[in-house]
Structures are given as C-alpha cells and as structure tokens.
Structures
1.
Amino acid sequence: MFKILKKEELSDLVILFEIQAKDIARKAKAGNFFVLRIHEQGERIPLTIADFDREKGTITTVFQKVGKTTHQLSTLNEGNFILDVIGPLGMPSHIENFRKVACVGGGVGIAPIYPIARALKEAGNTVISIIGARMKNLIFWEDKMRSVSDELIITTDDGSYGRKAVVTVPLDEHLREEKDIELVYAIGPAIMMKFVCITTQKHNVKTIVSLNSIMIDATGMCGVCRVEVGGETKFACVDGPEFDGHKVDFDLLMSRQRMYIDEEKVAQERYKEKVEVK
Amino acid sequence: MEGKEEKEKEKKKKKKNRIKMREQDPLARAKNFMEVPYGYKPEEAVGEAFRCLSCLKPTCRNGCPVSVDIPAFIKLIKEGKFIKAAWKIKEDNALPAVCGRVCPQEIQCESLCILGKKGEPVAIGNLERFVADYEAEKGEIQIPEIPGPSGRKVAIIGSGPGGLTCAAALIKSGHQVTLFEALHKPGGVLMYGIPEFRLPKVIVEREVEYIKKLGVEVVLNAVIGKLHTVDELLHDQGYDACFVCTGAGLPIFLGIPGENLNGVYSANEFLTRANLMKAYLFPEYDTPIKRGKKVAVFGGGNVAMDSARVALRLGAEKVYLTYRRSEAEMPARKAEVHHAHEEGIEFLLLTNPLRFIDDGKGNICGVECIKMELGEPDASGRKKPVPLKGSEFQIEIDVAIPALGTRANPLLTQTMSDVKLNKRGYIVAEEGTGMTSKTGVFAGGDIVTGSATVILAMGAGKKAANAINEYFKWKYW
C-alpha cells in the first residue's frame, strides 16, 4: 500500500499526487515511469514520474482524467492509499551537454518534460521550453518550467493564454531563425509528438519522444506496448519509452492506442452510473 | 465354470484401468472458467491407491524431479490416512495441489509405473491432488518444526514455482528468506499463465500462504534490476546469497506482416489479462480483453492449449489451433489436448501462418496460412515441417494469439554484468547446483533452461536450495 501525501488539482482535469514510495524515489531518474493499480479489481496503468524527492522518499505524478481508472484515481485524497505502485520502469532519459536543446510539453506531457528539462539544464544545456495545451486551465507548472528553462514559450489552441498556436508553430520559428538547437525533446499526445517530428525533420534536428502506448505489466513480458521504430518492433516499456522520433511509426501507435476504445467507454459509463447512484 | 472365468477376466480388466476423475461436461465447461475435473472422492482415491503394487523397487519416484516418496504416500492413502499422506508429499514438494494438476505425469512419475506396461499406470497425479485438497479442506495444515535461525539471509528473485520451492526448502533449513516478485501477485506462471479452469487461483494463493506460514517474507511489486540490483541485495541489504528464478517471460512473435495489428496478442498478454487481471470478468474488473468471434492460436504447447480454451470461454464461436507439425509432435500435456478436442476446438495441423490481414482500420480480419508436410528430422530430432508450395489459404479471424514460447527477459540480467549469459541471453548455471559465474548468485528454472515445465523449475529450486546450504557450510566457489 502506498500513501498519498499530497494532492493538488492543477486544473479541472489535471491532478498531482505526491506518493510515498521510498525505494522507487531512491532509484528514479528523469524519463522513468511507474505502474499503479488502485484496488483489487483495478487495472494496471502507467504514469510518468514527474518528480521525486530522495530525502523525503516520495515520487510525484501528474495525470489527466480521461477514463475510468484516472477518474477513480482523482477521487482519492491525501492520506488515502494506492494498492500497488511499481517502478521505476523504462530506460531513463539520456542526459548530456548538447549545448542547446528545446523541450516541448503538450497537455499532461508538461509534467514528464519537467524532470528532463531540469536534468538537461543541470547538465549545462541552454534550455528553450515550449509548453502548450488546448486552453488556459490545462496549463500548469509554468513557474516550475520557467525555473529550469532559459526561455519559456506558452501556447494555447484557443488563445486563452500565451500565444494562440500549437506548439509546433514557435518550435518551427525557432528552428528556422536560430540554427543552434542540437536536440528536441517532445512529450505529449501522440498526434502532437508526430507533428513535432514532422517539424524537426524539415530542419534535420534530432528529436526524442516518449511513447505512451497501452501497458499491463510494463516489464517486457507481454508486448502490448509494442511500437515500430525504424521498421523494427520494440517494447516501449523496456526498450523505451523514449525513442528517436524520426523513426517512430506514429500512425501505428495511435491505432494501437484505440484498441480498447469501446471497452473504455463501457467502463467509464458504468463507473459514472455507480457514482451518480451513490 | 465359464461364469467364473468371465468374472476373473472382468476383475483383471478393472485392475488394469485407473479410476477416472469425474469432469464437467465438455459443452457446459466450454462456457465457464470453473475447474474441469472435480477431483476424487475419498473412496475413489482409496480404490485407485489399491491399484498400486507397492513395488519392492519402486521406479515411479525416479520420474519425479523433486523425488516425492510416492510409494509411501500411496500407502498412507490405502490406510485412509489422507492428511498424513499430504504431509509426506510436502516433505519433498511444497506445491502438491499445483503439481497434481499441472505436471505432465505421463512423461514423469506415471511413465515409470510398472502397471503402465500392461494397462494404465497408477494415477499418481490424481492422488497427489486429492490428498492436497483434502488437507486444505479439513484445515489441518501442519507447519513442520523449523530449526533455530542460522543467521543467514537469502534473496529469491521471482515467485514462480522454482522460487517458491527454493524458498520453502531454505526456510526449513533455518535461514531468513525473502521472495521478491515483480507483479502484484505471487506465483509467476501459476498466477498469470495457467488458467482458472486448469489451476484455480485460490489454490495457488493457498499454497503461497503455506509458504508464508513457514516464515518466508514475500515482497510484491519489486522489479529487481530496477528497484534493487542483485549487487545491492548482496552488498547493501545483507543478503548472503541470491537465487535468480525469473523465468523466460519475453514473448516470441512470429515475425510475419501484420503482427502489430489490433487483435494480435502474445499468449503472455492474452493469458495475463484473463488470469492475473481477471479480464474475463470485465467490467466487474477494469482490465478489458477482446472477445473474438473467430480466434486462431498458433503453437502446440500447453500455452497454446490454454489460450485456445480461454478464447472459447470468452465466447468465441470458432477457435482454431494452428500447428505446423502433426498432433503426435505436440509438446502439450496429453490431457489438455484431449480436453481441447472435447470442447470443440478445431485443430489445423501442418499449417503455418504467413501474414495477418488488415481490415483497413488497423484491426486484424484474417490470416493467410500455408499447408506443411513433414520432412527429415531436424536438430531436435523431430521431423522438420516444410511448406507445400501453392497450398496457401485464408481464414477469417478477429483475434490471433501466437503462442510460440518465450525467450529470456533481459530486464534483470542486463543489470548483472558479472553473471555469464549464453548467446540466447539465458544465465549460465552449473547443472545440479545452479551456481553461476558470480559468487553467491545461483540461478534455475526457465531463466537457465529456456521455457520448460513447472515441475522442472521446482526441481531446480530444490537443487539450488541444497547447493546454497552447502555454500553456507563451506563458502567455496
């Protein structure tokens, strides 16, 4: 059992939990994720480790309410327990001094891009961060991102905050005007990562993405998270989740993400009914 | 006179045939996840036990990888001492209810039974299962006396059959034993792989409870290699030895076009969803699974049989079992092949898949196969299947499950740079002891041999426990 020490509602849909998990905190690195299961009937879902505190023995995660499990998770409060927390999983981000990098976070992807931006900054890089979301109330961690970035650009699709644009617009401008960015890191919805990759490919700038495929065990034993990278099948949970974005088959990733769309709806509706009856 | 002879004949025939276990009707059971055989009643068990000749030089015991004293426990059944019989087995085997159900007895203990020469061998597996269940039902679980603490600590990595067996043996030697498991439930393949209808999960839980009662500490959700490394366990956490028994959990795919379409599952994924996550109870349980109408499973082992029979129970109208050799070469347990036939699974033998067909929306809608014929024996001694040119055909399916076996999962071994691996990524360990190239680290089960059986992993666990005891005595490597 893993205790929730802190809960913060970053927006209507985005929640932050700080979870007591001493052993995981001791080993966590930027780019790692973990798997959780709320209760005995629950499913296992992967979430990114957005921060960790080795002294306090805690990990921090940020998630968006999208389906049954994340909605149910959001009803837990400080002092409540999560049944299973498993990690740290996946390969950590490859951090070194590339001189100048761009970190792009979309929606809830702002959370996992933060520890990477921080690690890149600590490694001596100049960090340009671009964070974007559909609208103002989905933007969070502006201050945190600013604290690890040399420059921070905020975009919203509807223009309710920052620049009215998608993240690829300022990214494209930057790559066109200043040809000194050596590496781009992008985390967000698959469609966003796909378009970031299309943008950076034009400028021939290496791009790392963190793939969010469906997972169960997340230790490499089932292959549900398989993705195609450079024509080869890889397991995102153990070979990734970070890959060279220019080699990723994003259409396959998006198709596989939709595999259980009908079942997800059934679970969500049933959960809503149950909650309403209560 | 004639009548008497008839009677004698009848009696002899009876002696030749074992007492069958009653089973659920095939058509009824194909729709539920309840166990197929019901188990013996006490009088049936006694009747079967009396078929045993109590050989002066029993050979059956040699066929058991953990050397259960078979004649002794059968003798106790004859005397009606069922609980004592269970304890007798537990001296050598911590998981009798599991082994009685899933061991391939026809190639182990029962294959060496003298009665098998002229009739059916004694149903040793059925008897083992009976006494284990009887003991559990009557609630008389006996905890053997355990010697005082030795002061030694052993870490066992992986709580499958090998890890559980090793843990049970070491705790009985007085060591402090911790069993680390990556998943949220202990049992390894017993929990995620073998389905409910063959091995009810309450039975696995019961046997793990027994091992906990012996004093073994079970730590779940601990992915060794990520959470702790073997070096950390040995140097920072004070463990004196490690036994690595992580299995071969990396699925093999066919490597044919269309394998990443939606609806194509590795058998590991399909069975993990169904068994560990109880997806067959969706939406009571949150994990979904595709309930295919027409399902094809590829392979001929136990995992293939299990996958096919799970698919059937999830409501499939048609389940094809495609295998590139003929039924005689199938590695699956005979009883399971028989059950699969009875339940209406269609066997497509001498058939190999070539590609999966896309419905245009990223889902599988069919498979193209080719017929095979058996040629010369290959390196494994089995006749090699060769494709028959021009015999391609297509079948319509919406779920495909390759069950071709597994390979070594590198998640742990890649963090053990000083442990020697073979070319295929398996740990190199001495046969008989499980000693690896690293002092204090033992290994056994599928991570050494590649995918094998439950009982062989248990045998490896037992041997490693003996070797660890020797190591503690002499500290010699």
Note: Chain A touches chain B at residues 23-24, 27, 37, 41-44, 68-69, 83-89, 216-217, 219-224, 226, 228, 233, 238, 252, 255-256, 258-260, 263-264, 266-267, 270 (CB under 8 Å).
2.
Amino acid sequence: MKLTVWTYEGPPHVGAMRVATAMKGLHYVLHAPQGDTYADLLFTMIERRNHRPPVTYTTFQARDLGSDTAQLFQDACRDAYDRFKPEAIIVGASCTAELIQDDPGGMAETMGLPVPVIALELPSYQRKENFGADETFFQIVRHLARPVAKTDRITCNLIGPTALGYRHRDDIEELTGLLSDMGIDVNVCAPMGATPSDITRLGAAHFNVLMYPETGESACRWMERDLGLPFTKTVPIGVGATRDFIAEVAAITGLPAKVDESRLRLPWYSASVDSTYLTGKRVFVFGDGTHVKAAARIARDEMGFEVVGLGCYNREMARDIRALAKDFGLTALITEDYLEVEAAIEALAPEMILGTQMERHIGKRLGIPCAVISAPVHVQDFPARYSPQMGFEGANVIFDTWVHPLVMGLEEHLLHMFREDFEFHDAAGASHHGGKAVPAPEVDDLPIVAANNDAPTPQGGEVIWLSDAERELKKIPFFVRGKARRNTETFAQQKGLQEISIDTLYEAKAHYAR
Amino acid sequence: MTVARPLPTTTGCRETPVLKQRGQREVFCGLTGIIWLHRKMQDAFFLVIGSRTCAHLLQSAAGVMIFAEPRFGTAILEETDLAGMADAQDELDSVVAKLLSRRPDIKQLFLVGSCPSEVIKLDLARAAERMTQTYAPHVRVLNFSGSGIETTFTQGEDACLASMVPVLPTSTARELMLVGALPDVVEQQAIGLLTQMGIGPIRVLPAPRAADQFGVGENTVFALTQPFLGDTHAALERRGARHIAAPFPFGEEGTTAWLAAIAHEFGVSQEVFDRVTAAPRDRARRAVAQASESLRGKSVFFFPDSQLEIPLARFLTRECGMTAIEVGAPYIHQNIVGPDLDLLVEGPVLSEGQDVDLQLDRCRAARPDLTVCGLGLANPLEAEGMTTKWAIELVFTPVHFYEQAGDLAGLFSRPMRRRDLLKLEAAE
C-alpha cells in the first residue's frame, strides 16, 4: 500500500478512455462499478467536449456481485452496440472488475457481434494512465491495420495524439502545416479524429510521425515491424528539435528540408538584449518524459537557462530521462510522489519551475515562478486560442509562456528596489491606491536564529544567522533570496563557520559571483 | 411587505408510482462525500483504502482543494496487497502509523472502504477496532464504506455519520440533535432561530471536533437537515432517539415547515414562533420572488444525483412556479422525504435509480426548459441546445434555510438568464 494524495496519472482504463474519446466510430464497454463514470467529466469539463465520451459502463452494484455481473456485462455490450452502432468495440475491466475476474474479452468475443471486438488487458494495480492509452491504441492498430497499397504522393500518419492530451489539438494543426510545407500529406491522424476504418488504412502511408512516445510508441514499433513503416524519433518541440525533425523527415523521404521560417520569432526574441537577464536562470524541469526532454533542451540551448534539476513521473520514460540528465551533469528524479518533487525543489531553490499542475502549486507555496509544460493539466490549459507546443509557432508560444512569470518577477524586483520608499513595503499589499495605504511596520530586531519561511535550513546545518545578516538578506529580491540563503549557508559550512554575519553574506556572494 | 403569493394546492405525490430502472448509472460514488465532510470535521482524517482510480476520483472531484494539504488521502492497493490477506492488514498498520506520526493533530481517523477493498473483503472494521486500541485515547479510528457498489454520492456522508452513532455515549438528557453536515454559516442561522424560540440544548452531528462529543438516548429527538441520511436515521432510532419528520428546509416554505415541526415538538407557542420567524420569512419570500422571475412557468427535469432532488423539486414547483417533468433520485426513502412528497405539485414522473441512456431519451423528448444533471452530462446537453444546471453545486453551496432561499432560486435562474443574454449566433 502506498499513501497518496496527488496522482500524476490516473488508472490505465482512463488511458483507454482517452483513446476511445479521441476516436470516432469506436465504442468502449467498460466493466466497472457504479461511480467510475466520474472519469466522464474529465472530458466534458477539463477538455470541454460537447458530447459524452463513447463509453458504456456496466456500473455494477453490491447486489449484482456473483454470477450476475457477467450477464450485466453482456447486456451492456449488446445495448451499446444496438444504440451506437460503432464500427468496432473495445472491451475491458476497471480495477474493481479486474478483481472479480469476469473476463470481458472472452465474454464479448462469444457474443457474435457483427463488428470487431478488441479485448484490453490493462493491469490496474501495476500500470497507469499512459500505459493504458499506449496499450489500447496498440491493440486497436494490431487488430485492424493490414498491409495496403501505398499512396502515390508521399504521406505520413500522425501517431499519438489523444483526448485530454496537453495541447494535442493544436500540435496536430502545426505539424500538418509543417509537413505540408515539405510536400507531405497526412494520411491518417490517430487516435485523435480517426475511425476504425481509418485505422485499416494506416499502412498506406510512407512513414509515421510519432508525436508522443507515451501514447503511440508501441503502435509505431508494431507498424515498423509488420507494415514496414519507419517512424520519426525526434519530437519537434523547440526550434532545434523542429529543425532536427525536419532533417529526419527529409532523410526518410528524400525530400528537401524546405520549410517556412518566416513566422518563427523565438530565436530573435531570445537574442534581443531584453532577454539578457534570462542568462543562467536556474530552472527545475519536471513532467512527462517527452515534454521534459524537449523543455530541457529549449531551456539550455534556446533560452540560456541553467537546468539545475530534471525528472519525470512516468517510469516508461525513465531510461531516456536518466540519459538526458547525465548529459546535463545531473541525476534524474524519477518519481510519482509529489512530496519527493517538492523536497527536490526546496533543496535546489531554483528561480523557475517548468512542470505540471502539481509543480505550479509547489511553486506557489515556495514563491517560485512556474510555467506549465506537461499534463496533468487543468481546464485553463485547454485554451480557446491557438497554442501549440510543436513546430515554429509552438516555439513562439513556449517563449511567451516561460518568460511571462519571470517578467512578473522583474516587476516585483522593481518594487523591491523601492522597498525603503514609504509606499512600497512587504506589508503594503497589491496596491496602495484608493486609501489602502498601510504604513510600513517598525523594523525591530529580528530573532537571531534563522526562522524564515523563504527556504528551509538545510538538514544538519547548524549555522546561525545573525540579525543584521538576516535583515540584509531580506533586502534581496524574493525570487533570488532562496538561492542566496542556500549559497551563504553552504559557504559558511564549507568554511566551518558557526554564524553568518553581513560579511559572510557578501563573502559568499563574491564566492558565487558569475 | 410583499403580499404572499398563494402557494399551489396539491394532493401531493406520496402515492405516485415510482419508475424504477436498472442500467448504466451516471453518478458519483460515496467517496466524494469526503470532500465536504473533511472541511466540516476539523480534526478528522479520511483514509480511503482503494485503488489508483479512487485517488484519481478524489483528485478530480476536489479540484483545486487537493492542493490545500487536505485531511484525506488514499492508501493505494498494490499487487502484493492482493496476493495475501494477512499482509494487507500489516501494510495498513504501517501506512496509518506513518500518517499519524506525520499528522499528530488528527483525533479521528476514518478508514474508508472502496470497491476494491470491499471485493477483496479486506476487514476494515476489525482494523479500525485494532487501531482504536493501539492509538487510544489520543485517536479514535472508525470505519465506513464509500464504495460505488454500495453508496451513491451523498450516501457517503450517511455511511460516515451512521458509523459515528454507535460510539456516541449514552445520555438521558432531552436534547435536540440536528443531523447532517451544513456550511457553518447555515448551521449557525438554524441554531440561532431555534435558540430564539427557547429550544435547547442543540447538538449537531457531525460535531466539528472529536472533543465536542455528546450523548444520545431515549430522550433525544433529532431532525434531519439533509434527505440522504437513511442509515443514520436508522442508527439513531436503534439508540432510542426519535425523528421529527418534516419537509427539508429549502426555500421559505420548507424552512418554516421544518422549524414548525421542531417548535411543535418543544411546545413553542404560535406567538413566539411568529415573532422569531416573521422577519426572515418575509426576507426569504422577497428574495425568492425576485430571483425566480425567470423560472416562472418553466419546466424542469432532474437526473438522479444527491437525493436532494425531491425537496428541491418541491421548492421549485411551489415557490418558483416551475413545472416538474421528471424528478429522478438515486434512492427514495419514503419515510424521510414523505413530507416533501406530500407537498410536491402533482404531475412529474418520479424515478428511482437510472438507465442513463433511456433517461436521456425521455429528457430529449420532453425538451425541458432546465435540466439538473451531473457534470458528465451538462456540457453534452448544452451542446444539444438544452439549458442545464449542474447538480453538484447544490451540495457544496449554502442553500438551506431562510437567508439562502434567494441564492437557491438564483442557482437555477442564472443558467436561464445566461442563455437569454448570450447572442452568439452568426448573422443570417
């Protein structure tokens, strides 16, 4: 048993729902107890879908337990077919149904439904949401895709976008345009928008674009082996990665790497002098493996940040992320425990976090700016406006998204510069206008021992802050104060000092100057 | 003072046959009750023993609340726990030991059963007993089931409160107990009104803290503030307490009837009752009249969700001038919502349980002006051109008693006003 409050991923049947909801003409019959329908609202609320997910739940109750549940499942299957007339059905069990061992796959296959019935084995007590999506899509492809004649023009499939995917909707559009610039059409985009009959035509493409390894890699590997379709290995998030992706596609197809860069603005924005203050910003990167990999490269090579920590929550990507961390001279944090992530962030005291919804809240708690780069996300990250992550427009979006919280930081800095001013001080609040002015509190002697919420004193650190040093520390803008505190304490420990005076603070500042 | 509009006369719906259907149910499980219960019981922790699905449900239902260090969590069952039963009990002990050492402020711990823990027959009752002995007197450990196979949405609160009744001390005092978790502001209004009539002492179940314990016995009388408390009702009667039957305190009429039933039990004179209630009654009537303008003459359709549907339909039909087409509830406890059924304007189909696809067919055919439903159905129905009010808000928002009567009508009228306001169609 593991004590949990936040979960980065849902159970695997939610992954299967993400595939079913992304597709059209497919229906999912899920053997599950009453209550599991809660997952519908992820799609209708967070993604704001205007239809119910194509999922029929058996919703068995306590009184149904026993031999009854098998009959319930078969009835649900038949009703679903009669009502929705899908081109294919997927069937599976949720965590509770897995325990009662009704074998939905076996039962559905014996019913003689006139459409393909694809059974899913999703081990709920070992695997999670992303695995569920990847495995479901793989099974659908394996059951339905067959070798077919190639299209005359060079075409590709877009593989991996699902419902509830972070920016999947706009990534598809951006990539479709990019490939079109190169003279490549999209044969099928799947699972998003595809029907089961579209799946049978996957083999007509010349190659596959693997957009999201988390949800499409198994299918791509199978198609490579059984349909002879090569697939791209670079995920085009960031300027460098997009150019690498274009080169990779050119190599696969023999077409020239001709694309329109006229609307790409990240390189100039990043080179312009206004961005100089971004240099060496210490960032912590966490999320799903794919987005972390892309974000780390952008952070270092395209924004000029220093990546001080990185990791992912999905074990499937652990090997990749460990290799990446090594490349950055770091140790990867592979965990699904947000408390570990929080501890790592506290210890590193970065100036910015690139993460998920969870890290956004950790950042809020620690007073560190944060930009969201990966699922799990909330309703605000399914925006109405066009906001891809992939391709050149994606790079523009990423530049704005990451810089915004930092510009806010600069505003704060200016306010802090005027902190001695009678109007601007910590207790003044957001505005001093409209008669809300609060006089600055009298500065009295601060307690001598470091009892401050900016950052925790490191474990075993017996160093004591003298009150004038503590006061001086307070003058440093909040968004670098944590780092200054940590550096000073490390410096003092290295020097074997018991106390930190103003001199120690500035000695440390000189020591770490860059 | 506004002139009171005469309320519709009705022979009620007590005898109306109830449509019972079995099929897919689009409802929450009882675990969701934890999300409001933990706010109400300030020193309690709710530990769900379940799967990743349960944790994911709580996270989805709690929304941003999940980030506020909430006093609930899930012990997620892993493969090894499913292999051998003795093992699972040891695992649970160590999870609880770790939890309680991290949260020394916790005085009551609820082990909450889920579908997976029920199906593998993990004996949480015995675990609770064992842990109560281990952690006495500092922490009391109780157990109830919030599983989907046994409970629907608000029934989770019922199961929780029912688990507390047997361990209440025995008392012979004549006391009034208000049963059901209400927002603090609403609870204080209710206690204030009753106190002004000279009724007391008043106890509230659940009490905000374990230390605020009170007794129960043959002289206890209790009033339910929520309609979904069937098991708690039964558990209290087993302890000898007596129920004061009344319509539920929604709207001016419901609140007055609820207060009147209690006043009658305690022998409060009509004169005192009128003196205490006249001003807030008048306020409530005016607020409802104003907020319900756009509801008058409109039809409403209720999908089952919380068991609040029948009392709310009574409020909407009598005080807001709506017509009910269908009133669906997950369960109908005739002896608890009976007084509301007596007042409900006759006409609607009463349905218990659900086959969601068939019910959607009925709803589409009826084209109600307003559909009250869960979040899984709301946006899809809006996309079909229907106006919806999502039901969960009715459980979280203060809606009971006089001062909230206008707000309650407002919750239903706002979606209709919005539909009239938005001009999004392209020019022809």
Note: The first strand of chain A starts at residue 2 and ends at 4.
